[in-house]
């Protein structure tokens, strides 16, 4: 078979662009930010210029514009999810990862019964949406095992229902395998590029299947060919120059838009954290907090309709800040090890990397609401066929607001009824009462009021 090259990531083009935009004037930056306010995205040149911002005043201006765009498109909703690690076997040797094959620790994969146990613990915390995670190992973690895991997750119910959306984050694979995953009715297929910089990519993935830059970078082409419409990209910040990475991801997004009419559904922004067998000091491109905030804000203005995902790698303080001007989905109550939810309490297990936010979902929710955010457990879009291009059209026309807001309130009502203590019940009812009044269309407002009452009386899984 002919090897497909990922030549849409043009190293020379990115490097030239970054050189040419090296010192933009204040006027140029201001003009770009004014254009950004229309929430229609920016050109490569414009994004490259924004990446050069250093002064505190200009950064604050960028955050303000990003915050306005965020508010306009996402309102004050924040979607919650949790990762579920099913296997830490890995044949790769990614130099940054605790699971790499050179690290010696007792590896394992969860049996179906163990997966069900983990899912019950996640459901007990109120989760409805999970990200399935696994190392790459064709022998110990083959496709049949992954498919069986997906089936087990969707069919494990507690008294309040089951997990309603599984996003899958497994290694790059074939069109045939993507087709099988697609048939299992997944939400988004997620794969982090790690780094778009080919020489760095090859260096940090020595002697391994994952080390093939072209195969990895064209994974979403195969996923789209297989009919998966919602794909989620990401960069592991800290491996190469962040400016290069942001431009690389945007070129990747454009490639998908041009070829398949839809770009990334989500972008994840993990930062490199300490992991077993690696020393952070060996990575010269670590991104500090100030730069990280700038990156999030730039993604928000560059691709306004693409969800931005932040994990518990980051501390509670930082997460609280970046949800104001960029991030639309966060994980909560996460463990990042196989069997982690069971072992969490026992203090056992091997984590993939260190976690920065240790709060429970209940604590995260209370905090979000105190800051006027609406926590959402909505999973409606893909279940209503709002995927790929259809989702983007609805999002860009603003019509998506007619469903996202109401669905957030209904799923929050479920949460406070099923998992809340007295404090969150009162907090939630107050917030929901206030927000329902803001629903502009009177027919939708009436329907939501009716549904909220039905949920109070015990009905579940109502959505628009
Ligand atoms: N094994 C698959 C892969 O590598 O694509 C799927 C999931 S892997 C469990 C999830 C992600 O964890 C990787 O894509 C990588 O970006 C991230 N990761 C690995 N080591 C990390 C570290 N030390 N700090 C932060 N994130 C890390
Ligand atoms: Fe394996 Fe993924 Fe870790 Fe690389 S990042 S060692 S592929 S689990």
Ranges with pLDDT <50 over ≥5 residues?
none
Q: Let me know the average pLDDT.
A: 94
CATH homology superfamily name of the largest domain: Aldolase class I
The general outline is globular
Helix and strand topology:
Blueprint: H1 11-20, H2 26-36, H3 44-51, H4 56-74, E1 77-87, H5 112-124, E2 129-134, H6 143-155, E3 157-158, E4 161-162, E5 165-169, H7 175-183, E6 189-190, H8 198-204, H9 213-217, H10 219-225, E7 231-234, H11 242-260, E8 266-268, H12 289-302, E9 307-310, H13 316-325, E10 329-331, H14 340-344, H15 361-370, E11 374-376, H16 380-383, H17 388-397, H18 401-419, H19 422-436, H20 442-456
Parallel strand pairs: 1-2, 1-10, 1-11, 2-5, 6-7, 7-8, 8-9, 9-10
Antiparallel strand pairs: 3-4
Helix pairs in contact: 1-11, 2-4, 3-11, 4-12, 5-6, 12-13, 15-19, 18-19, 18-20
Describe the 3D structure:
The chain is an alpha/beta fold. The protein folds into two domains: 71-359, TIM Barrel (Alpha-Beta Barrel), CATH 3.20.20.70; 388-456. The protein is built from 20 helices and eleven strands. The protein has helices spanning 11-20, 26-36, 44-51, 56-74, 112-124, 143-155, 175-183, 198-204, 213-217, 219-225, 242-260, 289-302, 316-325, 340-344, 361-370, 380-383, 388-397, 401-419, 422-436, 442-456, and strands at 77-87, 129-134, 157-158, 161-162, 165-169, 189-190, 231-234, 266-268, 307-310, 329-331, 374-376. The strands form two sheets. Strands 1, 2, 5, 6, 7, 8, 9, 10 and 11 form a nine-stranded parallel beta sheet that branches. Strand 7, helix 11 (242-260) and strand 8 (266-268) form a beta-alpha-beta unit. Helix 2 runs parallel beside helix 4. The radius of gyration is 21 Å and the shape is globular. The N and C termini lie far apart (45 Å). The structure holds S-adenosylmethionine and iron/sulfur cluster. It comes from Desulfitobacterium dichloroeliminans (strain LMG P-21439 / DCA1). Keywords: 4Fe-4S, Iron, Iron-sulfur, Metal-binding, S-adenosyl-L-methionine. InterPro entries: Aldolase_TIM (IPR013785), BATS_dom (IPR010722), FeFe-hyd_mat_HydG (IPR024007), rSAM (IPR007197), rSAM_sf (IPR058240), ThiH/NoCL/HydG-like (IPR034428). This is Iron-only hydrogenase maturation protein HydG.
């Amino acid at each position: 078979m002919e090897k497909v090259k990922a030549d849409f990531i043009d190293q020379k083009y990115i490097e030239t662009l970054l050189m040419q935009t090296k010192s933009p004037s204040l006027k140029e930056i201001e003009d770009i930010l004014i254009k950004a306010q229309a929430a229609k995205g920016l050109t490569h040149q414009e994004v490259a210029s924004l990446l050069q911002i250093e002064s505190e005043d200009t950064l604050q201006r960028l955050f303000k514009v990003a915050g306005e765009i965020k508010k306009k498109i996402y309102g004050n909703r924040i979607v919650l999810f949790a990762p579920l690690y099913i296997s830490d076997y890995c044949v790769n040797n990614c130099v940054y990862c605790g699971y790499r094959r050179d690290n010696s620790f007792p590896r394992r994969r969860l049996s179906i019964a163990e997966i069900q146990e983990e899912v019950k613990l996640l459901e007990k915390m109120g989760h409805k949406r999970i990200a399935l995670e696994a190392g790459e190992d064709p022998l110990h973690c083959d496709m049949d095992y992954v498919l069986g895991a997906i089936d087990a997750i969707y069919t494990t119910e507690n008294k309040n229902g089951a997990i309603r959306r599984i996003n899958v984050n497994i290694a790059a694979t074939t069109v045939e395998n993507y087709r099988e995953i697609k048939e299992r009715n997944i939400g988004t297929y997620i794969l982090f590029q790690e780094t778009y910089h080919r020489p760095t990519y090859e260096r940090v993935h020595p002697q391994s299947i994952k080390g093939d830059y072209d195969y990895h970078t064209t994974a979403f082409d195969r996923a789209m060919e297989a009919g998966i419409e919602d794909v989620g990209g990401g960069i592991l910040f800290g491996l190469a120059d962040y400016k290069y990475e942001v431009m690389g991801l945007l070129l990747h997004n454009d490639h998908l838009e041009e070829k398949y009419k839809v770009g990334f559904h989500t972008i994840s922004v993990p930062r490199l954290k300490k992991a077993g067998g690696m020393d952070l000091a060996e990575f010269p491109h670590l991104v500090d907090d100030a730069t990280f905030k700038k990156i999030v804000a730039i993604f928000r203005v560059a691709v306004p309709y693409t969800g931005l995902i932040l994990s518990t790698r980051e501390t509670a303080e930082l997460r609280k800040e970046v949800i104001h001007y960029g991030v639309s989905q966060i994980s909560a109550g996460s463990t990042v090890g196989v069997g982690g939810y069971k072992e969490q309490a026992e203090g056992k297990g091997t984590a993939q990397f260190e976690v920065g936010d240790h709060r429970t979902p209940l604590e995260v929710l209370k905090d979000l609401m105190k800051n006027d955010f609406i926590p959402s457990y909505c999973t409606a879009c893909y279940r209503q066929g709002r995927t790929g291009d259809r989702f983007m059209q609805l999002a860009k026309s603003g019509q998506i607001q007619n469903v996202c807001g109401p669905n957030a309130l209904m799923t929050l009502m479920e949460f406070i009824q099923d998992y809340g203590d007295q404090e969150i019940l009162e907090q939630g009812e107050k917030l929901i009462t206030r927000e329902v009044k803001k629903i502009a269309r009177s027919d939708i407002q009436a329907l939501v009021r009716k549904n909220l009452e039905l949920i109070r009386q015990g009905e579940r899984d109502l959505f628009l």
